């Protein structure tokens, strides 16, 4: 009788331990990992897996290195795309057949980046990136800035507002309004001088003073510099670079400071819009009136209006669109 009870007790204990092992999170994780590894081993001997691997190169896009163009100066790089074979197989294995619409891609960085280039101004983005950047130089025109911010928000568009340091000091509330609207700000010198005519220390002072007042007012660290009237010499670009700022120029000029009719501004810009275009504008009445239609037309061409940071980074626009659409 005692021996029978011991057998029953031993059976119960064994059953209890078995349940603990089966329900243990570490055991479950081990089994999942083992199953996952087994599935990939099976996949790699599978015809579908081999087919994806064989066809992958035809869908891949090589990255583009940054380079210095003889006309347009510094051109940023652009990420390429490579097929994630394992992830693609996971999406296709249920039906067991190849489907290019289920391919999963990963971005591949170029070997040469914008930061690797010698100091050089930027006039446009990478010609394969379907984006257009707006730069808005601000030293006056306060009354038109709220309307421009409203239009940018309506289109979920962005711009880089290049602020004169003296203007920021005198108009801190408007400067804060710009950054509160999630718009980027850049350096447009402190007193709006002809930078090409300044001595080295004066150049440095104009840039550092503006950096300081923008940071103190908006809490934004500046990384872009737009010389007033586009006037610079090589030393200006080199000094800006030594201070951590890339020099930004433009591809299309609205010449809006002459206050032409809004239709002239729209036509002037659209004639030059292509991938990577940088549009120069100011807070003026005709620009504020033209902005809505201008963004609409650019978007209709298949391009997105962005700030300088977005235009010049290497991230692909097709990847950005997928994220936005989720």
TrEMBL record:
Coiled coil (residue ranges): none
Domain NodB homology: from-to ranges: 130-306
A matching Pfam family: Polysacc_deac_1
InterPro entries registered for this protein in UniProt: Glyco_hydro/deAcase_b/a-brl, NODB_dom, Polysacc_deacetylase_ArnD, Spore_polysacc_deacetyl_YlxY
PANTHER family, per database record: CHITOOLIGOSACCHARIDE DEACETYLASE, GLYCOSYL TRANSFERASE-RELATED
Protein name, as recorded: NodB homology domain-containing protein
Organism from which the protein derives: Gottfriedia luciferensis
Lineage, opening ranks: Bacteria, Bacillati, Bacillota, Bacilli, Bacillales
């Amino acid at each position: 009788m005692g021996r029978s009870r011991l057998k029953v007790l031993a059976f119960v204990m064994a059953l209890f331990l078995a349940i603990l092992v089966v329900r243990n999170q570490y055991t479950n994780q081990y089994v999942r990992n083992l199953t996952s590894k087994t599935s990939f081993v099976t996949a790699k001997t599978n015809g579908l897996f081999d087919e994806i691997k064989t066809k992958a190169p035809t869908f891949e896009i090589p990255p583009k290195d940054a380079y210095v163009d003889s006309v347009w100066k510094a051109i940023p790089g652009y990420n390429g795309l490579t097929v994630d074979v394992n992830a693609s197989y996971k999406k296709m294995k249920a039906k067991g057949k190849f489907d290019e619409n289920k391919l999963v891609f990963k971005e591949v960085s170029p070997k040469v980046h914008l930061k690797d280039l010698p100091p050089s101004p930027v006039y446009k983005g990478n010609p394969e990136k379907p984006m257009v950047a707006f730069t808005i130089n601000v030293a006056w025109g306060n009354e038109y800035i709220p309307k421009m911010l409203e239009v940018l928000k309506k289109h979920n568009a962005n711009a880089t507002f290049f602020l004169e340091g003296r203007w920021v000091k005198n108009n801190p509330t408007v400067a804060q309004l710009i950054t509160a609207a999630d718009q980027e700000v850049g350096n447009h010198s402190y007193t709006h001088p002809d930078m090409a005519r300044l001595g080295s220390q004066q150049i440095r002072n104009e840039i550092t003073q503006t950096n300081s007042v923008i940071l103190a007012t908006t809490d934004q660290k500046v990384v872009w510099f737009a010389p007033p009237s586009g006037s610079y010499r090589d030393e200006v670009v080199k000094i800006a670079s030594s201070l951590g700022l890339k020099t930004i120029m433009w591809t299309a000029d609205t010449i809006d400071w002459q206050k032409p009719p809004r239709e002239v501004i729209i036509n002037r810009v659209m004639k030059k819009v292509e991938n990577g275009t940088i549009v120069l504008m100011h807070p003026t009445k005709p620009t504020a009136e033209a902005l809505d239609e201008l963004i609409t037309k650019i978007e209709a061409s298949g391009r997105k209006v962005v700030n300088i940071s977005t235009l010049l980074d290497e991230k692909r626009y097709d990847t950005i669109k997928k994220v936005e659409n989720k």
